[in-house]
Amino acid sequence: MTDQPPYYRDQQVTLLLGDALDTLRTLPDGAVDCIVTSPPYFGLRDYGTPGQYGLEATPAAYVETMRVLFAEARRVLADDGTLWLNLGDSYAYPPGSTHRQGQTGQRKDCTFTAETIRGTTALPTKNLIGIPWRAAFALQDDGWILRNEVIWYKHNAMPESVTDRLSSRHEHLFLLTKASRYSFDLDAIREPHSMRPQRRPRGHKERQRLGVLPAQTHSTSQRDEPGVDGHPLGRNPGDVWDITTKPYPAAHFAVFPIELPLRCIKAGCRPGGTVLDPFSGSGTTGAAARQLGRKYIGIDLNPDYHDLARERFAQGVLDLPA
User: Fold this and answer.
1) What is the pLDDT of residues 43-91, one digit of tens each?
2) How far apart are CA 83 and CA 177, in angstroms?
3) What gap in Å lies between CA 130 and CA 44, rounded to an integer?
4) At a CB cut-off of 8 Å and minimum separation 6, what does 114 contact?
């Protein structure tokens, strides 16, 4: 158990030690502008911490835990705020079985060795449970607006030894909002065009209207140069993000790469706003928020991770270039 206080606070970062739901209940309404988080995945890892999430008896119980938690997070989120929820999937195995979960494993575990997994009897063995979409639909039914499913493609994903299915090389990242109008800066995450935007030939629109040319989609931003296809600041990055996994060297577990929360915060948190991660871990989301000049509130139940994050932020060193 940590001998440090259950909080850390400086001008930009606040770290709180405790249960995510209980701690969220202590925060005021609309206290944060953006939530970027990755809860413990269902049935994949026992961290030896009483009250930890992810060890519920059934997928339905886990999904209900997520629904209740994010209902409270919605209260804490500003009306024009965004929630970016990263969830990995898992397979159904009997409780106590020993097997190799492979790349679907929890982001805070980098070993993926054969180990005892709590499992579930709610589905026949070897079923892909579909936890990310079950949770997304539960949040949608609870009032959240589901705006995007982003596929986080990991081309350097850890190999799996399975021979009767395909290896998993992606995870899900859902963008959810409280309202139909929300803070979102697409320009902040635009990518370079694969080729230089082309000027449309004279009469293009008329030929399109007459059906001579197929309709084509192009940006309608006021900053578009008249007669030119494509936004001058770059293209929409789309909903498949190729981001390489990168371990945090101070941790014995794998954290998600800082590029993931960097992109979410750039797009979904107003300048000078506050970012929240109810499952802060080693503080990767906080490191991204700090780089981008946002404030950060991180919550974690595990005292070891709390201490690790404290040390990370106390050093005052930026992790990676934005």
Assistant:
1) 877 777 889 999 898 999 999 999 999 999 999 999 999 999 999 998 8
2) 6
3) 14
4) 98, 99, 100
